[in-house]
Amino acid sequence: MQGERRQRGRGSRAWIACGLFVLAACGDAPDVGELDVVYATPAERLEIRAIRAGETLGGLLEAEIGFTQQQAVLMAFREQASPRRVRANTEVTLRWLGDEEELRGIDVALNPDETVRLTRSGPNWLSELVPTPVFTDTVYFAGEIDNSLWYSLVQNERLAAMPVNDRSLLVDHLDRVFQWQLDFSRQVQRGDYYRVAFERNFRPDGSMRSGHILAAEFVNVGTSFHAIWFDGNDDGKGSYYDLEGNSVRRSFLLKPLEFRRISSRFNPNRRHPVLNRIRAHRGVDYSADTGTPIMATANGVVTKRGPNGGLGNAVEIRHARGWVTRYGHLSRFARGISVGSRVAQGEVIGYVGMTGLATGPHLHYEMIVNGRHVDPLSVDIPAGEPVPSESRGVWSEQMRPRLAMLDLLPGPGLERLARSTDDGASPSPQRP
After folding, report:
1. Which residue of 26, 149, 245, 358 shows the fewest CB atoms closer than 10 Å?
2. How many Cβ atoms sit within 10 Å of the Cβ of residue 28?
3. How many other CB atoms are found less than 10 A from the CB of residue 181?
4. Nearest-CA neighbor of 227 among 201, 193, 196, 271?
5. Which residues contact 66 (CB under 8 A, 6 or more apart)?
6. What is the C-alpha end-to-end distance of the chain, expressed in Å?
7. Which of 32-36, 94-98, 107-111, 219-223 has the lowest mean pLDDT?
8. Residue pLDDT, tens place only, 113-139
9. Which architecture characterizes domain 261-374 according to CATH?
């Protein structure tokens, strides 16, 4: 009997479907008219405020809750963070349920990645630390340099949806990847070109939390440099290699500061700006603001730390194979940097200043090999280790699709040609 009912049910549904099909085939569906717009009342009412200079969280809440409730809120807040972290311009969101007058909840944004959520529970308040959700995507961009790399990236139409501050950070990402092949502060030329596939983690407001380059190409004065990310152990500790699997890293960084202007070069006959006499300048000066972090350019051991004549506060590091680097005019030393301590390439060892004989804040950087000073801008630095032979198969599998990401972008000269064609102008000849 039940099986018969089920069979009849299936037959009824089949006839209904067939009837609808016949109705649609015989003519237009009947016009039922337009429905009135229905506005749904939001479940919560929200009001966003900002802590003013000199104001406290309790002070902001005075108009909404009494003194006893303020103390309960602050007690719950302390379970997650110190009230001292709530500074001027901190965003505070007040929440009410429907049309109720009693404040239901409070959200205090500690930083872009953490919010303390406070919720009323009878006479008490409960708190929790809510992480900001993060999404992942891949951004593809390319461009030809007319003015500078920074300007090209910030003005790049392909990055229009990305906040300006994040676009400027892409310069640092490129600089960190190509820092052994190119010095972006002095070698980038008009007409140079870049293509990049960049994986990022971003917040709901569009700002970037973190990211790294998957594949990149930079064409400098006709010479193409590639960098492909490879993490053979899948532990986040990978590195970048060229198309042949050779490491783009070198045993030394090309410079100890990120993307800074050179103010004075290696010169055995330079006139000293303070002493006003000919005195060999056996290093390179990088102009930078006081407090700018200084990085060790290679792994090594600190052999000197402290005042060093005209160099002021200085650090000297001994490296393998007879190499020594020296860093002068520091405002202060990084914590943990002392004679005998080991440092890693890229580790911060101090901060830019103008101690010793200096006319302004800058870093003086020297390289010495087997007791002889060499020009840091022209010395031939040995390369890092290539992809291990046992990982070559995995490297080929990962390299090909990442290189293909760059093929989604126009090559040098093609993007400007496309723009000029879109504008209706005659395309001008491009550098190959």
Report:
1. 26
2. 7
3. 18
4. 196
5. none
6. 82
7. 32-36
8. 999 999 999 889 999 999 999 999 999
9. Distorted Sandwich (2.70)
Tell which residue, 127, 102, 125, 103, has the closest CA to residue 117: 127
How far is residue 80's CA from residue 92's CA, in Å, rounded to a whole number? 15
> Could you give the CA distance from residue 141 to residue 148 in angstroms, rounded to a whole number?
16
The DSSP annotation for 283-324 comes to: SEEEE--TT-EEE-SSSEEEEEEEE-GGG-EEEEEE-GGGEE
226 vs 177, 180, 215, 378, 404, CA distance in Å? Answer: 10, 12, 8, 21, 12
Strand 261-264 relative to strand 44-50: parallel, antiparallel, unpaired? unpaired
Round to whole Å and give the CA distance between 58 and 241: 54
The 10s digit of each residue's pLDDT in 276-306 is 555 577 889 998 999 999 999 999 999 999 9
- Looking up tokens 């930078």, which residue turns up? 288
Closest CA to 255 of 196, 324, 316, 181: 181
Q: Are 376 and 366 in contact (CB under 8 A)?
A: yes
Same fold, 135-241 and 261-374: no
The listed CATH number (3.40.50.720, 3.40.50.300, 3.40.50.1970, 3.10.450.350) that belongs to domain 44-131: 3.10.450.350
For the chain, helix, strand, coil in percent to 5 are 25, 35, 45
Sorted by where each begins, the domain ranges of the chain are: 44-131, 135-241, 261-374
**Is residue 311 a contact partner of residue 356, using CB atoms and an 8 Å limit?**
yes
Q: Which CATH class is domain 135-241?
A: alpha beta
Query: What dihedral do alpha carbons 134, 150, 231, 211 form, nearest 10°?
Result: -10
What 3-state class would DSSP assign to 201? strand
> Cβ distance 182 to 188 under 8 Å?
yes
Residue 223: both structure tokens together = 């010479």
